[in-house]
Design brief:
By secondary structure, this protein is an alpha+beta fold. It has twelve helices and ten strands. α5 crosses α9. The C terminus is likely disordered.
Amino acid sequence: MKSRFRQLFESSPDPMVIVNRAGQVREANAGAESLFGYRRGELRGQAVERLFPGQPVALGGDVTGEGGTGQRLDLVASRRDFSQFPAEVYVVPIVSREGTVTVMCVKDLTEAQRAQFVLELGLDTLESADRDQQALLGHLIRAQEEERGRIAADIHDDTIQLLAAANLRLQQLRHRLSDPDELRILGKLQETLTLSLSRLRQLIFDLRPPSLQRGSLDAALHALLEQMRTENGIAYRLDDTATARTPGTATVLMYRIIQEALANVRDHASATTVRVQFTDVDGGCLVRIVDDGVGYNPAEVENRPGHLGLTLMRERAQVAGGWCRIESAPGDGTTVEFWIPLGGSPEAGRGRAA
């Protein structure tokens, strides 16, 4: 590796490994040693699947080559002691005189998912409340949305500004370099920074949709669905025959459940169309999200690490006095259906939709 790139590789606070075209680990930095529990010499020459067992990691095709900008993968990683953890992996190709290699930057999501899980399960306290349930639910949802807003503001005011500054410095450095290999490596780093900025801006939108801030569920969903259509080519249909007025807390709750369901469609379903339908049912609102994707076996998927979203959809609906169910089979698409009471008996709603 070039000395400049090696210095960047070694000094990175993020765990990183370099993999050759054959899928073998060529090098690991100190962060990777600490995260996975291996010494560098133990990893060199090992198949990358040793770190991500049973999961294909695409290293060729459109991921490598001059024009590749990398990809983001959600994987389950394995340490030397065989303990596993959810990981976010950025796979970035680097082309040099020695050929194409792939840099994998690994982030342990254990604490992030645990924190999110604990936050969402805080809604369980509302199940024991009867008379004050809606008031408590409203307070907690407002607190969650306020926290999301603070996080979004922190990302915008801190992280995005730092990345933008780093991007500017890379542009300044580009004017001082003349070596083609160094310029190519610098270009890849700049592409990664640009991709990171784009993802952070999307995260800000997900945390704090402008339309939802104004209380418009319909506008927020149209924006979310239109973004899926533009970025992922997934056509959509939004049918709203519900006439009951939706309280502000229920609006936020319903949006977050639908947002999670649509994220699964976008990331896992390989769907071409999705339909979101609202219907009045027994004093509440019944929502159905149906896609024509590849489907899955719920019994096999929902207990795997990294699939808290399916559980959280049910938890959100249940603490509001409603319910949520998911129906799917390989090759038959997926249906997410949930009911939220807007006044009336949760039991009545459950009986109608069963």
